[in-house]
Every structure is written in structure tokens, then in C-alpha cells.
From TrEMBL:
This is HAD superfamily hydrolase (TIGR01509 family). GO terms for molecular function: phosphoglycolate phosphatase activity. The keyword Hydrolase applies. GO terms for biological process: DNA repair. It comes from Lachnotalea glycerini. Keywords: Hydrolase. The keyword Hydrolase applies. InterPro entries: HAD-like_hydrolase_sf (IPR050155), HAD-like_sf (IPR036412), HAD-SF_hydro_IA (IPR006439), HAD_2 (IPR041492), HAD_sf (IPR023214), PGP-like_dom2 (IPR023198).
Amino acid sequence: MKLAIFDFDGTIFESACYWEKIIDDYLRKRNITPPENILSIVKPLGISGAAKLFKERFSLNEEQSEIVTDWRTKMGRNYHEVIPLKAYAYEYISKLQKEGTKICLATAMERDFVMPAMERTGISKLFDSIVTIADVNANKNSPRIFQYCAEQFQAEPYECTVFEDSPQAAIICKEAGFHVIGVYDGVCKNDCDLMKPVCDQFICSFYELI
């Protein structure tokens, strides 16, 4: 493995349950029963897409931008203060670094949220590059961000391993020629059945790789 490319939310950080609670609470406060597996709906759409969907489906009074701001403000505090690394993520990534593997982060999350969490937990020092979708002007519905990471280190897709919790991202990466390890996000159990046939390997904990 020449390059390891890690997703942020739900892959190396235990953030899925925080996102689920914030969106669940938001809808319940408006007397709306949240749909089952709410995070499975949100992940492929992104926060803006999910806000648009819920506004239309539930006829929310708030503008889409207001919904997004509410969710992100609350999650911003969580990233700055409390969201932990997934168990054994630090140990595994440190192991890769010691073996000479380059380490890259590829995330749809804003850098203003990513960096405080990375620095608070001390894991930022293990990464050679941190790339957001804003850096490549493309979302995770295309392989561009992963290809950009590979290009930074003159690596071909087959020399890279992508670690992802999203079935859609896993499919996109496999189609683009990357090796893919699926990671259980701790919340979306239904995603496990979708990920396992697609990924080269699927894990519930990084301990399995150490």
C-alpha cells in the first residue's frame, strides 16, 4: 500500500451517532417522527441535500440554509469539544505511518470542523495531506477527491487503499480502481450488508487490522 486514504466522519471519528441525534432531535422538536435509518438517508445526500429533502418531505418552515446552519452549528461544537476517535484508529494509522505508507484524509466536511477534531485528538500529525471537497470542487458522488489524493503522491489507484463508511463512496472508489476497506460507522447497520459485497474487506474495528 503506497497511500492510505481515510474518510473522516464515521470512519476515523465516532461522529455518526452525534449527527443522528442532532437531526433526530431537530425533527422531533417539530412534531415529526424521523424516518428509520435516518443517517443512511443523509450520508449519500450530504447535509445540504438532506436538509433540502426533509424540508420538502415534511414542509418545514425554515429555509434550507437555516436548517443546514442549525445542524452545523451544533455539530461544530461537538467536533471542537467531544467527538472521539474510533477505537484503535490512532494505533492503526500510526502503524501504517511507521511502515512508510503515506496517509491522506478525504472528506466532505469543512476544514473548520475537521482540523479542531484532528488536533484535539492528536491524530493530525499522522497525516501527510488533508483534502476536502472544497479543495477539488467536487463532491463524493464522483471519484475526483480520491483521484486528487492519489495524484498528490504520484500513486495509481491500485496502489491506494480507501477507508470509507459510505456504500456509495465505496462503489465509486471500486469502479475507479481503488482498493477499498469498508468501516462500520457504528449506527447504520443496514449499510453493512451493502458494503460487504462491494469492499475488498469490511471491518467493525481497526483492531482487526492491527
